Amino acid sequence: MLYITLWIVLSILVALYAFARGHSTINVFGFLLLGLVFSPLIALVATVLIPPSDKSLIDKGLAKKCPHCAELIKTEAEVCGHCGIDLDVAKKCPHCAEWVKSEAAVCSHCGRDI
Ligand SMILES: [Zn+2]
Ligand SMILES: [Zn+2]
């Protein structure tokens, strides 16, 4: 009986971990079932190996899309880890559509006033 209780508790813990990682509710339920039916250990491995979908990460506010390269980045990121753009200061030049710092008065790409 103790073994079964432990089995269920571990499965729930794995499901909670999956939820914390940003998995969608359906996925979390899937990991819970995987833990209960097969093994909490297998569920844990699956949780670690399978990345949460972009959509569920954005829905949960754990990630956002870089306005420059459209790659997924952390919500609190100030600099995009993919294209290196500074997210706090970046704005688009209305003339050449290149990215420049928001405090810039002149576009560093086309040299026109912003
Ligand atoms: Zn980027
Ligand atoms: Zn420009």
* Shape designation: rod-shaped
Count of domain modules: 2
Structural class: alpha+beta
Element order: H for helix, E for strand:
HHHHEEEE
The strand order across the widest sheet is 1-2
Unreliable stretches, pLDDT < 50, 5 or more residues? none
Compact overview of the structure:
The chain is of the alpha+beta class. The protein has four helices and four strands, in the order ααααββββ. It has helices at residues 2-20, 25-37, 40-49, 54-59; strands at residues 63-65, 72-74, 90-92, 99-101.
Structural features, described:
- By secondary structure, this protein is of the alpha+beta class.
- It folds into two domains: 58 residues; 53 residues, no CATH class.
- It is 42% helix and 11% strand.
- The chain contains four helices and four strands, in the order ααααββββ.
- A two-stranded antiparallel sheet has the order 1-2.
- A hairpin with a 6-residue loop joins strand 3 and strand 4.
- The radius of gyration is 21 Å and the shape is rod-shaped.
- It starts with a helix and ends in a 13-residue tail after the last strand.
- The site of one zinc ion has 8 residues, from loops.
Keywords, please?
binds zinc ion, 114 residues, rod-shaped, two-stranded antiparallel sheet, 2 domains, alpha+beta, single chain, two-stranded antiparallel ribbon
Write the layout of secondary structure elements.
Elements: H1 2-20, H2 25-37, H3 40-49, H4 54-59, E1 63-65, E2 72-74, E3 90-92, E4 99-101
Antiparallel strand pairs: 1-2, 3-4
Bound molecules: zinc ion (2 copies).
